[in-house]
Amino acid sequence: xxSFSALAVSALVALSSSPAALLAEGECEVVESEITWGFxxxxxxxxxxxxxxxxxxxSGDVSYETPAFTFSAGEGxxxxxxxxxxxxxxxxxxxxxxxxxxxxxLANPTLTLDGHRRATLVFDVTGDTMDRVSVSADDxxxxxxEWSAGDESLNxxxxxxxxxxxxxxxxxxGSESFGTYPAGEPFDPVxxxxxxxxxxxxxxxxDPWLVAGGVLGLALVGGGIVWITARARKSPEQGRQ
Length: 241
Fold this sequence. Notes:
By secondary structure, the chain is α+β, with helices and mostly antiparallel strands. The protein has four helices and 13 strands. An eight-stranded antiparallel beta barrel has the order 1-5-6-8-9-10-12-13. The termini are far apart. Residues 7-21, 205-221 and 224-241 have low confidence and may be disordered.
């Protein structure tokens, strides 16, 4: 029979190994995650077409159902204001064509939040590009993601955050590792759904431009009030002249 001290140690070990115990202050544990992405429709058409005569396969947390790839069951933590953090997935997206001359694997996708309505999709990239260049690079910042306030919805009570149609742009490192397209090339939009512990998220942070606009508006209103007051005080004096 275990002693009280042994039970206490076991409980502490279990607690310290749980994801929630490793969270920093202001972080929220991701309990559900899903990213839906067509990658690049024109590239998929090329791979499956009569020239490349290729295919793509998936494994692990990555799946495919026409016309999009889905990353699911990722784990991680993000800040309560949603400006930082990451969600990591296990699995692979493998493109093959031209009888094996083209073979590129994008593995272990990670979503990294980079600030206000900005993120990056990161991959381990290996294989051979269409230019027959062999590549083996981990943690490649592949595409940047950006979205507007109208593209997202947030339910603080349930902990669900949904982004629809985030614009994806190929980075310089993504272009170098993948080949085929130059940096700055648009890729297919990305849909993201993340859920954290209920009520962990804070309300959306104010957009700096909206704040500046609000301050300017208040200043104009305040200036108008001062001007009207000054005119009202001056009018009787003008009447006596």
